[in-house]
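TBC1 domain family member 8, Leptocoma aspasia. Tokens?
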Amino acid sequence: MWLKPEEVLLKNALKLWVTQKSSGYFILQRRRGHGDGPGSPRVAWGAASRRLVGALDAVLDSNARVAPFRILLQVPGSQVYSAIACGATAEEINQHWEWLEQNLLHTLSVFDNKEDIVSFVKGKVKALIAEETSSKLAEQEEDPEKFREALVKFESRFNFPEAEKLITYYSCCCWKGKVPRQGWLYLSINHLCFYSFFLGKELKLIIPWVEVQKLERTSNVFMTDTVRVTTANKERDFSTFLNITEAFRIMEQLADVTLRRLLDNEIFELDPGLQDPTQITKRDLEARAQNEFFRAFFRLPRKEKLHEVVDCSLWTPFSRCHTAGTMYTSDSYICFASKENGCCTVIIPLREVISIEKMEDTSLLPNPIIVSIRSKTAFQFIELKDRDTLVENLLQRLKEVNSGNPLHCNNLQNNNQNSLAFGSMCTLGDAEPTCLGTETSQGKEKSECEKENNYLLNAEALRADFHQSSMPGLDFGKSREQIKESLWDDHFVEYGRTVCMFRTEKIRKLVAMGIPESLRGKLWLLFSDAQTDLASHPGYYIHLVEASMGKCCMATEEIERDLHRSLPEHPAFQSETGIAALRRVLTAYAHRNPKIGYCQSMNILTSVLLLYAKEEEAFWLLVAVCERMLPDYFNHRVIGAQVDQSVFEELIKEQLPELAEHMKDLTALASISLSWFLTLFLSIMPLESAVNVVDCFFYDGIKAIFQLGLAILEASAVDLCNSKDDGQALMILSRFLEHVKNEESLLPPIGNHHAFFSDDQESSPVTEIANLIHDSYEKFGDYSVEQIEHMRYKHRIRVLQSHEDTTKQNVLRVVIPDVSILPEDLEELYDLFKREHLIRCYWESRSAVSERHDPSRPYAEQYRIDAQQFASLYRLLSPWTCGEHTDLLAHRTFRLLDENMDRLIEFKGLASCLDVMYNGEMNEKIKLLYKLHIPPALTENERDSQSPLKTPLLSTSRPLVIGKSNGDAVDYQKQLKQMLKDLAKEKDTKTEKELPKMSQKEFIQFCKTLYSMFHEDPEENDLYQAIATVTTLLLQIGEVGQRSISLGSGSDEFTEDLQPEASASDQDAVFTDTVKTPHKDSQPSPVTEGDWTVSFEHILASLLTEQSLVNFFEKPLELKPKLENAKLNQYSLRTNGMSCQSRSEHAKPSMQ
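Tokens:
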């Protein structure tokens, strides 16, 4: 087929291609390894090269595979050639060659200029491939058929349950050492799978996303662009993708979604389209990536769903021209970003829009629309594709917003139990507010006034009431403030003063200089778009205050404890006015969003917000910070802050390599920075300087904190490189930050009360905050939102896995003192336990996952498994192999360990059970077996079950004799009598809780278990004989007790009536459900079945009389081989079992 002309360097291609034909302008080449017979001399050019070329040739499938033949356009005198055609067969490529000879070769001779020849040929070829290209595109869009083929292969090769949905697949190479293995990479909702059948060898890899610890694009010696997947035990490199960028983006999304769904389900909220893993598609993941970027770039609420992304141009009055860029439309916003980074950004909430109109289409203004807003401003967009549909959709969403029923809150019945409802107000499950009811505006205003009077909400920012006007140097500060205010007024005139203002590089420079005190609160509201939330939800805050005040819970207790620690040096928080406002805002937010509630550092941030904003405005600013500007920061694990801390560590390595080289372990520096992110420098920098940092944060988001942190480290780099330890480095940074001043501030000088001080009174140079911020933008301001979001994806994996490692270490620390299992074996056992939990969670609903995994619980209780999962582990790990009886014993063991009867057990239960089986004394093992055959482990149904065993054993009527070495048969009745006396005495002196006695049916089940445990043991015959003897003895002991109870006599008297003789017909199986009657000569009184009992002490004493049984229970057992086998087989056995189960369940309806 014809190819779009692309330049190739023939010099570098000679090792891969052989020239077969050439003319003055064209060359026909064949790929090495195609068409070479076994005896061909060309085959001897190197085995390694052949393998590599063969792998490359097999990388792509069908039409997309590297073709073995091609035609190049040759420019005389140049080393650069252009590929213009390729073919899968010699016949196909020869047809193209003949066409060139007949139609172009003679024509080219008339051109004198080489460039004209190239242009002419390329134009002809492009015309030829136009129709072919369109047909190929149509084929690619008809993906279902090819995808179905890939799905069939995926299911047959990996045998997952049907719920394991395949998302997409790619042809690529997996590197095994220095050798590439060509094959297929399958990406499913829970796994990364690779299959290769290469040179007669089959390779299968299954990597669960939840076990991925690092996912990155890297390079190795052989390939310049590789995807590296790192797990706890191995690194895998994948390369030679058709589109590595797309493949990596999908892998990144799948890893992020799956890890957060399974490991971070405490706070993580999935987009609606991703709630059901079985319905996720490649398109959904691509849409999620686009949505995440959109919300991060414009810092919009999580509920916003992106609808259209359209290239267009926007009229920018300040530059008197149309600026090329992209329009983004969502549920409640129209946003614009220029193609030139930082040139212009606009955010238009639909609630600010009055009209959206189409203008007349002209050559100067193609496809224009006008968006008019309430501030009597209009935005003109042109060059909009599919304008009519876009305008229609925008008008529909505008109507929804104006009617008070946005698209994203039309399903209120799905609110979770933590959502709040005050009268006609409601919130979504993720604690985002929706809309108020339909009460009239007059009524609302009246009720709000009454409530404000009742609660005395602050109508002004606290700085207005607690401003000090007698500070030295205040006149200079006031003049500087006036200059700034004048600059801002000029800016507002030109760029707008509402939330819909044009945001350009100029406004960033004004923000870096410091926002004037009089404008700070208002601009924070505009930059964060908290102004839109405030205007959209009148009365919402006062409703929350009314509902939350006076209620006591853990959050309110923590709030009360921290109230007087919030800027205690500031006069506003030395009075009840400031303290009461802070209490109301924090309590209202904790009531609004119970998932977050209250976290430390929220008090410091909120107190600063109250200084510059009204109380209700401060509340909405807090909402903006906690729920969209710093996502996942404010919860008990502070995952978001730790992710950014890890990103910051990477930025240090990139931007400050000398400092990173000196401080080999950057963990200490990154740990110091945690408070920077959580409090936006408010807790470690003087307040008058830190508020300038908050200015930049509200305008630029987390990027401002990253770049300022780098600027601080660079300014302190020399001292840090000379520091001797982490403690000294901490003191250097604390001293530096304490001396960051703001000479222009009108605030009273308030140092931070969390600073570290040392005896070293060495003076530090003063740093001006404006200069520090300017340096941060100049030197480190190049990072884009997209880059930061990609780094967050990468480091979130590491942080979540680090939390999992911490959980594991804490669980092991709790369990190790209570068991005798080796620590390394216990660690492997924990990994198997957790994997068993995850295997089940892969294909269950999120509610089922959250039941078994709760990060808020104590470490030892975070992961739990159910009976089916326990049975699977029991089969793999138990030393007591009982054949068909194993599953029954596993479920009894589970019921025994499930003390709180919630049908789930923790790791400690499994570890303690296996510890008894492998390391316990004989009496502990027998006690465990005994407990497994009495309630609650043994149920009534199991007690009455029929025995699957067929081998007849001795009955109670068989004489009790012990074979001695001298051949004499010794009557055993006297020994039995003495045993009963000893046990009675021991029972009287025993202080611990006595185990319940075992009934005859329970005893029969106990015997079944013992019998099944001895199967295939080397001493099987001896063990059967021994257990038969012990069983006979115990049955007679039980009968003695039964007779004693029925006749009211002591056991001593009745022992003498035991009959030593028995008929052959009485030698029936022990394991029957009917109770054997005593010998007819003894004529016992009729008794009920329940009177027959035997105690644990009886059983233990009887078993101790048989040396073969003692040897069996006391022989040393190794757990490690079982663990190794389980590691190899757990995954395949469980997935295969679940796959068969799901298929059988799926087949049931068709069988009816």
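The mean pLDDT is 80.
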